[in-house]
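testing teh design pipeline on a random one, pls ignore if ur not involved
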């Protein structure tokens, strides 16, 4: 029995999903299925590929080095060279340390680099686009090579020591700002507690009635006196 050949133009949507869609009045009630989902995903992928291609175009014609800078062996297969123009072979690649890939947000927050340091300063740092693991509908992640980021940090700040000084200074300023914010909240809380305790003391104090003139109620055959401050009515009979 011959195997069935795969036809890329064939609609491979499950029959259950087709029947489910056909019996729904609109995609709002179609359990999350939407006819535009596939088209949107394809369009997003085309845009991401186009951006990556434009970023890689300046490096297409560059000549490949003869050897790896780590082992001095011939540079045949190198993913780091293809993606980041970094002449290190796949055997010497260290994904957990200096060849680790860093997200753009981490590069900016941890290494204090700005957008202009990554995109405008010559030469611009190469990046590798990857789908966001949290949600594919989000924008693609831009990943940078750690060793190249460190070299850019040295260029921007002058040296690694000066970067560490600036990092320490900003951390101290951030900590001081957080302490001030905490102290302000604590003072506001103390003020609220003082005000609430004062109002509670006022309500807990004993009230001495100041009654007005005595009035006689003929219908009930009793006397009444009303407090001038709180409005309390004291009713009583006389023998």
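output:
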């Amino acid at each position: 029995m011959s195997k069935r050949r795969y036809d890329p133009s064939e609609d491979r949507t499950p029959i259950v999903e087709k029947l489910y869609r056909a019996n729904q009045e609109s995609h709002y009630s179609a359990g999350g299925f939407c006819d535009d989902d596939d088209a949107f995903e394809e369009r997003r992928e085309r845009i991401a590929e186009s951006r990556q291609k434009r970023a890689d175009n300046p490096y297409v014609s560059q000549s490949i080095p003869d050897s790896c800078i780590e082992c001095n062996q011939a540079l045949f297969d190198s993913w780091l060279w293809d993606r980041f123009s970094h002449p290190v072979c796949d055997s010497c690649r260290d994904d957990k340390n200096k060849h680790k890939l860093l997200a753009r947000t981490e590069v900016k927050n941890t290494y204090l680099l700005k957008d202009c340091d990554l995109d405008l300063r010559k030469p611009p740092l190469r990046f590798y686009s990857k789908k966001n693991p949290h949600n594919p509908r989000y924008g693609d992640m831009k990943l940078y090579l750690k060793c190249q980021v460190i070299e850019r940090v040295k260029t921007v700040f002058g040296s690694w020591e000066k970067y560490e000084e600036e990092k320490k200074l900003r951390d101290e300023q951030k900590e001081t700002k957080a302490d001030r914010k905490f102290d302000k909240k604590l003072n506001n809380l103390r003020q609220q507690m003082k005000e609430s305790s004062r109002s509670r003391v006022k309500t807990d104090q004993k009230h001495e009635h100041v009654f007005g003139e005595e009035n006689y109620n003929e219908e009930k055959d009793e006397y009444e006196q009303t407090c001038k401050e709180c409005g309390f009515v004291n009713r009583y009979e006389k023998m």
